[in-house]
Amino acid sequence: DAGVHSKPWYAATCDRKMAEDALYRSNKDGSFLIRKSSGQDSRQPYTLVVFYNRRVYNVPIRFIESTRQYALGREKSGEERFDSVAEIVENHQRTSLVLIDSQNNTKDSTKLEHIVRVS
């Protein structure tokens, strides 16, 4: 278990559009939630949804079968790995998360600061 089900930032029944709408409504940099990934792929079970600079970023959370750990985004060398999704959130509440805009090829960073609940 990824340690998500009892957490206030986990939106269990939320799809991508609901998550994005909720974050646009919050309109605060560093607003976030975690939802189930749309693809229902066991290698990418969750998505971290973050609001920053009037944009919503959907960051895939990967499950690494060989180590039973989690990591953010596409696989890269030297990436940070975590034992649970909760550890990812706790880590990025303290240290900035790099947000990559693949369309404009820009990088931003923000901490996870405001939990958004989807009503």
Automatic annotation (TrEMBL):
**A Pfam entry, by short name:** SH2
- List keywords of the entry alphabetically: SH2 domain
Q: Which InterPro entries match?
A: Immunoreceptor_sig_adapters (IPR051751), SH2 (IPR000980), SH2_dom_sf (IPR036860)
Database matches in CDD domains: SH2_BLNK_SLP-76 (cd09929)
Domain SH2, which positions? 9-116
Which top-rank group of organisms is this from?
Eukaryota
One GO CC term, this protein: cytoplasm
Keyword Lipid biosynthesis belongs to the record? no
Q: Name one GO biological process term.
A: intracellular signal transduction
PANTHER family cross-referenced by the UniProt entry? B-CELL LINKER PROTEIN, SH2 DOMAIN CONTAINING PROTEIN
Name used for this protein in its record: BLNK protein
What is the scientific name of the source organism?
A: Hylia prasina
Name of encoding gene? Blnk
